[in-house]
Amino acid sequence: GDSVTQMEGPVTLSEEAFLTINCTYTATGYPSLFWYVQYPGEGLQLLLKATKADDKGSNKGFEATYRKETTSFHLEKGSVQVSDSAVYFCALIRNTGGFKTIFGAGTRLFVKA
Amino acid sequence: EAGVAQSPRYKIIEKRQSVAFWCNPISGHATLYWYQQILGQGPKLLIQFQNNGVVDDSQLPKDRFSAERLKGVDSTLKIQPAKLEDSAVYLCASSSPRGAEAEAFFGQGTRLTVV
Q1: Nearest CB neighbour to B102, from listed A45, A93, A103
Q2: Region of B59 on the Ramachandran plot (φ > 0 left; ψ -120 to 50 alpha; else beta)
Q3: Contact criterion met (CB < 8 Å) for B43 and A44
Q4: Least CA distance to B53: which residue of chain A?
Q5: Within 10 A of B54 (CB to CB), how many other CB atoms are there?
Q6: How far is CA B5 from the centre of its chain?
Q7: Would the pLDDT of A23 be above 90?
Q8: Which of A14, A64, A100, B3 lies most in the core, judged by the most C-beta atoms within 10 Å?
Q9: What one-character-per-residue DSSP string does A84-101 give?
Q10: How many CA atoms lie within 13 A of A105 on its CB side?
């Protein structure tokens, strides 16, 4: 079945460091890909998305490119801030007779000042 | 635009008791989801509604969990009787599918502790 695999956390970085969180997926067809972020005590929020191969989603300095050849959607940011500390979830959506979102396990990011 | 509303925010119950959660999706969103998020894990879909019909409930433990979405708007999720392993955050989400961009909008969740 469809699945999403993320790198295990926690990831601990110093402020202004470069961030990469790996995400790969298994799915039939061509799903849409998403990154959600969950700040402490809050619900999930959509961070960025890409709906077809080679699309790049971007928001708040974060970027991810839909790579069909490697079935990946890695999240990157050039310079992280303490406020980026959160749990990041990679997800895919495909239409199976009703749109269904499948999430990865999440990667916790800690950014130190 | 108001977001997805859930209540209560927190609930503590003893095992074998019953509990119910309520969700009010974003106005006009036909699709409603209930997810279970166990600490340290990603959200797991329990049930998905399209209007008031069930689209997917393959991972809903039907011997103890039930959900309904009367009139295709609000929804309730019930657990009866609760087990210790049901301790989790229960997330409600809604979406209004437009082609492939069917992003889900999430509520803040209900944190359930079963003791």
Answers
A1: A93
A2: alpha
A3: yes
A4: A98
A5: 14
A6: 11
A7: yes
A8: A64
A9: G-EEEEEEEEEESSSEEE
A10: 10
Q: Which residue matches tokens 């209900």? A: B110
Compute CA distances B24 → B18, B69, B110, whole Å.
21, 10, 13
List pLDDT tens digits, range B44-98.
Answer: 999 999 888 998 898 899 999 999 998 889 999 999 999 999 999 999 999 886 6
Residue A40 contacts residue A86 (beta carbons within 8 Å): yes
Q: Which of residues 19-48 of B touch A (CB under 8 A)?
A: 31, 33, 40-45, 48
Q: Which value, to the nearest 10 degrees, does the dihedral of the CA atoms of residues A31, A39, B28, B95 take?
A: 10
Tokens representing A39 are 């700040």
For residue B97, the SS3 value is coil
Listed residue (B7, B4, B43, B10) closest to B27, CA to CA: B4
